[in-house]
Amino acid sequence: MFAAQTLQKFAREVAKYPADQKQSAVMACLAHAQEEQGWLPTEAIEAVAGYLGMPPIAVWEVATFYNMYDLKPVGKYKITVCTNLPCALSGGYHAGEYLQQKLGIGYGETTPDGKFTLKEGECMGACGDAPVFIVNNRSMCSHMHPEQIDKLLEECK
Amino acid sequence: MLEIEIDGKQAQVPDGSTVMDAARQLGVYIPHFCYHKKLSIAANCRMCLVQIEKAPKPMPACATPVTNGMKVFTHSDLAVKAQKGVMEFLLINHPLDCPICDQGGECQLQDMSVGYGPMKSRYSEEKHVVFHKNVGPLISMEEMSRCIHCTRCVRFGQEIAGIMELGMANRNMHSEITTFLGRSVDSELSGNLIDLCPVGALTSKPFRYTARSWELQRRKSVSPHDSVGANLVVQVKHDNVMRVLPRENEAVNECWISDKERFSYQALNSDERLTRPMVKQGGEWREVDWNVALDYVAHGLKDVAREHGGDALAALAAQSCTVEELFLLNKIMRGLGSGNIDFRARQSDFSADGKRAGAPWLGLRLAEIQNLDAALVVGSFLRKDHPLIAQRLRQAAKKKTRVSLLSVTGDDQLIPLQQNVVVAPAQLAAALGAIVKAAAELKGVAAPAGLEAIMVDAASRAIAQSLVEGEKCAVFLGNVATQSAAATQLHALAQELARLTGATFGFLGEGANTVGAHVAGALPSGANARAMFEQPRKAYVLMGVEPEFDCANPQLALSALKQASLVVFMSAFKHAPALEYADVMLPIAPYTETSGTFVNTEGRIQSFNGVVKARGDARPAWKALRVLGNVLNLAGFAYETSEAVRDEALGQGNEFVAGLDNALNGVAIALPAAAEGLQRIADVPIHFADPLARRAPALQQTADAAAPSARLCEQTLSALGLTAGATVRVRQGQGEAVLPLKVDNAVPAGCLRVAAAHASTAGLGEMFGSISVERA
Ligand code: SF4
Ligand code: FES
Ligand code: FES
After folding, report:
1. B129 touches chain A (CB under 8 A)
2. How large is the average pLDDT for residues B16-35?
3. Site from B180, B190, B193, B414 to mutate, A interface, most A CB atoms within 10 angstroms
4. Which member of B394, B478, B698, B763 has the lowest number of beta carbons within 10 Å of its beta carbon?
5. CB–CB of A157/A141 below 8 Å?
């Protein structure tokens, strides 16, 4: 189900661990699978399980536990808002509300044009920079007050 | 050893013990949910918090290792406050539905909330709702909001059943127990999840809403289903069996039972129960009284014996019959001058008869399995034939035992294996021969004569090596080996292997009372289970067997039965096909309605009492046979109780039977010739294996009870020029069956797997013999 390139990445992850502990590579493999597919359809989860010799439910546990894995298709830009306590104390909730209002969608939803998906996230380890967003699991955005949010949305073309 | 004091009581515990272990040793109760003595430590419920001297905060007893001189307080203010706090948290999202919960009355959460729970909830927010799941016919997951996330069910799958089917999806308050994509839970041990779940989240589907636990009487019994003889608690209400649970016996079944043992009780209450004796007269079935029926049987048998001699009579009994039943049936047959009695209906090679030194058995005690260094299982559908032995080997393999399999399909036994050799049934002896030869080479001694032509491959050598290196090792012959056309050769080879490597060897045992049947002497001096049908007799007595499903060659058995002038069918069920060929039907009591004794595969004598009154006019078979003996005017049938019969058969007051001996004398090794053409591999699917399981509706809806298909590997498929998914006609002799064709690469090349013991395949012949297949 995966492209040769993705399978190569799987192999590289698996090689990092002892032969009888392939399952240690599960998070990395899921990430690569998601990168290829844009999200994680159940077939991809089952295929990763098969690749690592794990029961599918064990991979499902991992995929449903972590926020970075998308079990439904997402927009071009997935913005994850940290709503944990430190952020919440420094305007995290308001930042989230502002974003929702600007995009006209709630958490877990995608704009009709398929451009933005909004998600709630857990502490990103950057509480000092609150409020904090992360875009597409990769780029961190700090101090997300309304002006910064406007700017971010501008930049997302 | 470490010193510990719990609530002022001193104890010495081995290094590595936890506070929970120490408390259990001392008999101090610490409340807990996630802790279970057979499962790994999860420490996620926090109910077991205790106070430990010098520790700044309460510690979980189940996960805190004992240190020397440790002082623990389980009832101090701090401990109780912590326990109450945890309880309050656990109840936050728990529904208040005890009055309609099946677990009510036997719920650990309910009990503990009485002990530790607050009188009133301080939580006024919305409770979390978890949707129900459908995971198959056995386990109800209708109210998953009750789950307290102890993960016992998840760990049971991973650790005991060997297959993770349930998992905990999502995180924090959204966590829920589920299967992958709503698939069913198919493990043959799945029912144990119901016992393990401390709350009412996982409950028994068949039992659901049929009784409250406090209305039930608990009665002891012993499983009639496999050779382990699992100890049971049968729960009864108004003389009906409502459910069956395991009775803990560490030496036998630990705290587990298989799903078959748990749910087969449904058959006891089925409409198919035979409740009145019946006699066929002029082609019409008539219900009669017992004395009329027994008179009829006595006259019939006597007439045949007088006219044609005792050799014209034959009796075949099931391996789930009790010692008492087999002993009396044997006595009657001998009294009538017939030596044609047997219980090995699925066996086809009887050449070991007369050469065995004693009753074949496991060769060691069940509890010794965990101490083996290496084990080889030959010819077995292990998980399905012996779920609890498979479970023991699984645990052993995880610790240290090097387990290898030599069998006829590559079915996943969910055991970490050292070697897994799969060969066609006809090659089984040669493959075992290769291991024997490898062992001889490793030991530097000459290989036994007869193995000259055998080539030793790497896998055989590795298996032999594991047996040679280990100090305590065992070789087990499974049901396929017993039922094989080369059974005696396999027996002789296993004996050689054991001799060469110093391992013990033995038989897993086909039925609940296989060893007991041997010891009770229900063995032929005349025609065996095969010969009695090959040379048809005039009269047959069938006790507990359903020949269409239980015989090695049903075709042969049925044609003999159909020509007989008298067939006496003793059964708990009005078995429809038997209405055709039987002349008398005697309603005998199943295991729950009679007293009796099973001897399990380790030779353990386990007697039990009836737990409910017999249905209708059904009677314990030992009583019916005793009366029959009297009607026949045979001497020695004055037994008052089943215990008296047992004591005559087995001696008095023993824990294990005498006369267990697997030795085989005077059999030279002569490997069978290779088979020609397509060969059948017949498993006996777990839920078709005996009359009770066959009639238990819930078991019949499981994946294990799927109707048989014809299965073969891709290689054979293309060699035969067939297409997968097609409907095919398979033939053996005069018989045929029409089945879907499926690809299964666990089947060795040149073989077709077609299950036995099912109506759709009952017309076929030998379980392991030639078979042909064509497009239907
Ligand atoms: S379903 Fe039962 S056993 Fe499984 S986690 Fe929930 S409470 Fe524990
Ligand atoms: S709470 Fe938002 S980054 Fe830590
Ligand atoms: S029993 Fe110790 S944490 Fe659950």
Report:
1. no
2. 97
3. B180
4. B763
5. no
